[in-house]
Design brief:
Strand order of the largest sheet: 2-3-1-6-7
Structural class: alpha+beta
Number of strands: 7
Order of helices and strands: HHHHHHHHEHHEEHEEEHE
Length: 395
């Protein structure tokens, strides 16, 4: 038959294993803003749980020491909250941590030194768990939007389960048995509470590990789809987005507009000012172009001094207006290299097409590239709108 002493030992073993896993995770993910605090929080929780178990094992515990050990265990929970908030990029106010600290110290202190009561201590433990897990839950949405659902679903399910079950068990304890002798008392509620903690803590430990994995995977994907010089999406990301837009416009029978632009006489800039200056010009151009396009347009650097944009427009006139707005923004905003102003202009080739069967990224890009070639050949610093050749559907 299960008893509280056996279950407490099992919970401590799980916490020890979890602490070890998270110390390794911290070492593997040094750039992860949450990994350090998850590891430290679990280690502090584990130390507090071990010390509390030892204090209760010898009969009547020394109350000041018991208070210290209880506070230590709950402090680890606060560290987990702090780590999750840091990891999400949306910090909680300091007042939240202050309030939790006051609740822990005052609640545990009252229940150990002033009016010793194992039931009150259990209630404080449960309340801190409920508040802490609610705060963790409030940060998971930000993480899911940034890194995807991996880890968030597991952790959210664990948090919600712990929230519901611990709340129910605390209520049951207060109604059925207002007073218990201690941690190892013969109580069905304590047994169920420890089983709940074992199950939820196990899944939460792995949930945090999955968050780290999702964070790393999202960063790798971001690196794979980003241009390291300008920070803009790269050609791979641009091709993926064009393909997605083509699939979307097929369903809505809308137009898709694609423009390619590159820097006029870029080789001359490199030869005159050096390649570092050329890189600075490209970074400058990326910033200016980003400010010139609208939020629903998609800008990317697709190679060398060449950039591309998907414009969200309704007709050719709107496309020309959008492309010229971009061209003029670059023309009037000179790049400054070592206090030297460098005039930069771009030529733009654009196409507007309806997504017919067979139209793909290659067709669009080739047509826009031909229009860009025409813009270069007719004087540069201008916009030329080309046509997409019909796609043959013959076998």
């Amino acid at each position: 038959m299960l008893d509280t002493k056996t279950l407490s030992t099992a919970l401590i073993l799980i916490l020890i294993i979890g602490s070890g896993l998270h110390l390794v995770n911290w070492r593997m993910h040094r750039d992860n803003p949450g990994a350090k605090w998850w590891a430290l929080g679990l280690c502090v929780q584990t130390c507090g749980a071990i010390a509390t178990a030892v204090a209760n094992a010898g009969g009547a515990p020394i109350m000041p020491l018991l208070m210290l050990f209880n506070v230590l265990a709950l402090s680890g929970m606060v560290m987990l909250v702090y780590g999750t908030a840091c990891f999400s990029g949306h910090a909680l106010p300091r007042a939240v941590y202050t309030a939790l600290g006051v609740l822990i110290v005052v609640g545990i202190g009252w229940a150990t030194l002033i009016e010793p009561s194992a039931t009150t201590r259990l209630g404080v433990f449960g309340l801190v768990q409920l508040i802490s897990n609610s705060l963790i839950l409030s940060r998971l949405g930000y993480i899911a939007r940034r890194d995807g659902a991996m880890g968030v679903v597991v952790l959210a399910a664990s948090v919600v389960s712990l929230f519901v079950l611990m709340g129910s068990l605390i209520t049951w304890q207060l109604v059925s048995q207002p007073e218990i002798a201690g941690l190892y008392a013969n109580s069905d509620v304590l047994v169920l509470a420890l089983l709940t903690l074992i199950a939820c803590k196990t899944t939460m430990i792995f949930g945090y590990l999955l968050l780290s994995s999702g964070y790393s995977q999202a960063r790798l994907e971001q690196l794979a789809l980003s241009d390291p010089l300008t920070g803009l999406p790269n050609r791979r990301a641009f091709e993926r987005t064009v393909t997605q837009r083509l699939a979307s416009v097929r369903k809505t029978d809308r137009l898709i507009a694609l423009a390619i632009f590159d820097v006029d006489h870029f080789k001359q800039i490199n030869d005159t000012h050096g390649h570092d200056a050329g890189d600075a010009v490209l970074r400058h151009l990326g910033r200016v172009a980003t400010a010139a396009v609208r939020p629903h347009d998609f800008l990317a650097r697709v190679g060398g001094e060449e950039f591309a944009v998907i414009f969200d427009v309704e007709d050719a006139a709107e496309l020309v207006t959008a492309a010229n707005r971009l061209r003029l923004a670059i023309e009037i905003n000179h790049a400054r290299i070592n206090e030297t102003a460098i005039a930069v202009t771009v030529s733009v080739g654009a196409v507007l097409a309806r997504s017919e069967n067979g139209l793909d990224f290659s067709n669009l890009y080739r047509a826009a590239d031909q229009a860009l070639y025409s813009a270069k050949g007719t004087g540069r610093n201008r916009v030329v709108v080309g046509e997409v050749e019909p796609v043959s559907m013959a076998a």
